[in-house]
Amino acid sequence: MELKKEKNAVILAHYYQEADIQDIADYVGDSLGLSQEAMKVDADIILFAGVHFMAETAKILNPTKKVILPDLKAGCSLAESCPPDLFKKFIDEHPDHIVITYVNCSAEIKALSDIVCTSSNALKIVESIPKETPIIFAPDKNLGKYIISKTGRDMLLWDGSCVVHEAFSLDKLIEVHKQYPAATIIAHPESETHILQTASYIGSTAGMINYVKTNPNNQFIVATEAGILHKMQQEVPHKILIPAPSKEDNTCACSECGYMKMNTLQKVYDCLLNESPEINIPENIRKKALVPIERMLELSK
Ligand code: SF4
């Protein structure tokens, strides 16, 4: 893309973006991979094809670079389920707790946190906290419950969730599995417990892609946002990938994030051309939010 060169810009895209956006991106990844990539970027402009909190994370890590997002309305139900004023009150009520927040939250929430995590490293980060230290985990209660089931830690959970991962239908999933009895079910830990209990593998988007590549089975039912199927299918063109069905959807049987899909190829182009909309974060918040992100990146090495 000529314009990209002309602007000395880099395009980072999340796995949940439309296929045509993933195809023009310099790097496609999950939240952890994108954060790590954002740190290495040697460009004047970072166009972040994803949602608002992801672009904010890139800006927190790259204060001198211009970070742009194709649609400022591309939010996240999970991030929105944790308003900073209420979260601050919750933390103040439990002053002895260490605060671990999932990266899917606003810069203000990160600024109130001790350490950030992603679905790739959440278990490792929780396990790095001494057993006697009580933990607040926010904002995703489903990921929190999954971590509790794995670590036995008694964490205090914020009551937030992702609309996409809560939309999977267990009944329909069982029906699909009856049609493909040899298929292995894999799921993202933002999914509800009853969906996770059916899965043979639970992991981040990057973890799921790696699993289908290395697992000898040829059929998988994939319980996460359907955008992941584009990259996954490129990695395993000979394998059958079936999106897990959602409660609402009776047509394509897949679950899509309306926020992620607000970005279109046209908006990506316009955004780069106009270098707008731009992400800006007050410096006092950015500095505070940087500390828990850096702790996470350090622990993820
Ligand atoms: S899939 Fe869920 S967690 Fe991810 S951006 Fe969309 S609403 Fe947020």
TrEMBL record:
Gene3D superfamilies: NadA-like. Its EC number is 2.5.1.72. Keywords: 4Fe-4S, Cytoplasm, Iron, Iron-sulfur, Metal-binding, Pyridine nucleotide biosynthesis, Transferase. Signal peptide: none annotated. GO terms for biological process: 'de novo' NAD+ biosynthetic process from L-aspartate. Catalyzes the condensation of iminoaspartate with dihydroxyacetone phosphate to form quinolinate. It is found in: Cytoplasm. The gene is nadA. InterPro entries: NadA (IPR003473), NadA_sf (IPR036094), Quinolinate_synth_type2 (IPR023066). Its cofactor is [4Fe-4S] cluster. GO terms for molecular function: 4 iron, 4 sulfur cluster binding; metal ion binding; quinolinate synthetase A activity. The keyword Magnesium does not apply. [4Fe-4S] cluster binds at C76, C162, C257. This is Quinolinate synthase. Iminosuccinate binds at H14, S31, Y102, V103, N104, S119, H188, P189, E190, T205. It catalyses: iminosuccinate + dihydroxyacetone phosphate = quinolinate + phosphate + 2 H2O + H(+). One of its GO terms (cellular component) is cytosol. Belongs to the quinolinate synthase family. Type 2 subfamily. Pathway: Cofactor biosynthesis; NAD(+) biosynthesis; quinolinate from iminoaspartate: step 1/1. Binds 1 [4Fe-4S] cluster per subunit.
